[in-house]
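We treat protein structure as text, and this decision shapes the records that our systems exchange. This encoding replaces a full spatial description with a residue-level series of whole-number codes. Below, we set out a record of this kind in full and without editing:
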Amino acid sequence: MFRRNTTNDHADITPIERVTSVLGSGIIWRGSITGRGGVRIEGTFEGEINLNGLLVVGETGRVTCENVQANTVIVAGAIKGNITAEKLEIRSSGHVWGDVTIVAFSTEEGAFLRGNITMEEQVNFNFNEPPEDNSLPAEQPSN
């Protein structure tokens, strides 16, 4: 009934990544999550999320961000803030308070969303990629 036109080829969409980092239950973190990969949040996070990859907010996860930006966002917990994603999935236990801009959207029965939904043919991201050199600075000799 509500089928999207699938003739557009989205070859430039990043494939879904697996979870490589977890913010565990009982952890409270304030700051920013940026980079490339998959992150699962089971604790509480406040700050900025700008992720080239997968973001999973587990059932015990609580996220408060002005803007969440990720390729794929799966919400089983709660997000307070606007979401920009290629794909957003809100599970039956998930709650979202904020406006969403997405390419694809799915929910389960019982999911909650309070905000506006804008569906686009393509979403443009402004990912803040970390520098390629992740080496630690050389240790300075002590005198």
